[in-house]
Design a protein that fits this description.
The complex is a heterodimer of chains A (about 350) and B (about 250). Helix content of chain A is about 70%, strand content about 0%. Chain A has 15 helices and two strands. Chain A has a two-stranded antiparallel sheet with strand order 1-2. The longest helix of chain A has 27 residues. Chain B folds into two domains: about 160 residues, P-loop containing nucleotide triphosphate hydrolases (Rossmann fold, 3-Layer(aba) Sandwich); about 70 residues, no CATH class. Chain B is globular and about 60 Å long. In chain B, the strands form two sheets. Chain B has a six-stranded mixed β-sheet with strand order 6-7-8-3-9-10, sandwiched between helices. Chain B starts with 5 loop residues before the first strand and ends with a helix. Classes of the chains: A mainly alpha (about 350), B alpha/beta (about 250).
Amino acid sequence: MNADAENAAAAVPTGTAPGRKPLVARGGANLAALIMFGVLALLPVLAGLIDDPFLVVTFTRVLVFAIAVLSLDFILGYGAMVSFGHAAFLGLGAYAAAIPAAHGVTDLFLQVAIAAVACGLFALVTGAISLRTRGVYFIMITLAFGQMAYFFMTSLSAYGGDDGITLATRSTVLGSGILENDVVFFYVVLGTVAASYAVLRAIIGSRFGRVLSGTRENATRMQAIGFPPFPYQLTAYVIAGIIAGIAGVLLANQTEFVSPAYMSWQRSGELIVMVVLGGMGTMIGAVPGALAFLLLEEWLAYFSEHWKLGLGVILVLIVLFTRGGIAGFVSKYLGGGRA
Amino acid sequence: MNEPILRIEALRKSFGALVVTDDVSVDIEPGELHAIIGPNGAGKTTLIHQLSGSLKSDAGTVTFRGRDITGLGMVERVRLGLARSFQITSILDGFTVLENAAMAVQARSGSSFRFFRQASGETALNEQAMAALAKVGLDDRAHRRAGSLSHGEKRQLEIAIALATNAGMLLLDEPLAGTGREESAVLVDLMASLKSTHTIVLIEHDMEAVFSLADRVSVLVYGRLIATGRPEEVRNDPDVRAAYLGEEAA
């Protein structure tokens, strides 16, 4: 049998289990990630060659969103938790940079710590409540919590309320304004994406990650062997919230402006679209997903103000014809993505 | 007789007006293979759900190794050593066969709140998982995707997972469901070999298998236990013949 031979071949390096995601085998994904991050690292050089500084700015924005997409793919693709309020973490993280900055606290590490604590707590409380529900109810309740955060920030007039708040400068690193340099900031963001990717990949392969994806696949089976879903799902939700919060700090620095619009449910929906575009449950799809969405947004808006209609059509085509999003498409046409 | 390993007393469950488990009391002795038979809709699977903790009972008590477990859920019961299999195959299709078993080993060995060490590299997990697979004869399939197994192999894996939990007592819900003749022969041999190491409650439709394996048989009809005893006693019980075996014998 064909499948037999294929599986036997995959089983040859014993001990290392063949990736349970058929879309992108694990070894292949790591190689693909290495190539992807390597190419991205050369981007400022390319931008210098073609004399287009805007390229670096655009990709910085893409990579900031990619961090949030990674964190959402972690709970959505591996934990089957369709959070429709993920933008709230991005927004809270952005405010964790903007509000201290308004009081003169501009240190990046301090802001990241504040974002991590705030988003971790918000995820812990809202996750503990949301995870008592399933399916559509989970989607609705996460959306409701996201909107609560949105309206809270809208009414917080001390920090701009609806109008948002402008950052005087980018965050400082040990007192230095080094992040004002777009290229340096690009590398900080790229490093954060790569680190988030590596950390989440490690977690997915760990004991914890196994329980999480086992629960996604068959929660009853997991309970029957002794794993209650709740503590594992909640922990994953908190991890994702913290990482999205860190993305928020970087987003505030990228735009040097923060407004409640970052937390709106439309933003949450866009993050889900980015996950699906890139390939759900692949991790590697986060960067291409964010890139495709943000470029399509710009490109389609150029043609028509009704660009979302065009985006809808493209999304339908991608879901219908590629299944695993961009990552699935690539791995299918490049020999299963195997190294 | 020894103290029963599982004591079921006056267990009840109804869905609306339909009484599915009606005052069921039976003691399961340590080491026995106790089969529960009954016509379709007799409430056998509901009883297994109640015993495994996936369904709350309306009344009655379940005592496992002297401890009242009536209020415990499936997670706590399997940790105490009472594992179940499912009538409709319930495995992790996207994981390998080895990973399916290793997951059950992981559940009972150390914390699963470990985030960085790769689980696939934990030899202790893999070795014990492999041992469970070897017992059911699936060790040569260890690295295949569970979803790609044949139906009979999936039924074997279902049992391997229960074994990998290290439970002393197994609740097997129609392990032969949907299997062909050869597949069921493998499974019957497997259960016969497990008799020496595990206490087993077996729900099964295949009468040939039940009477060849069981130490005792209970007959459930419309939620009531109408007979419990040695296979030959049950076979000759007039109530049982009328209610159940009669249909098949006729």
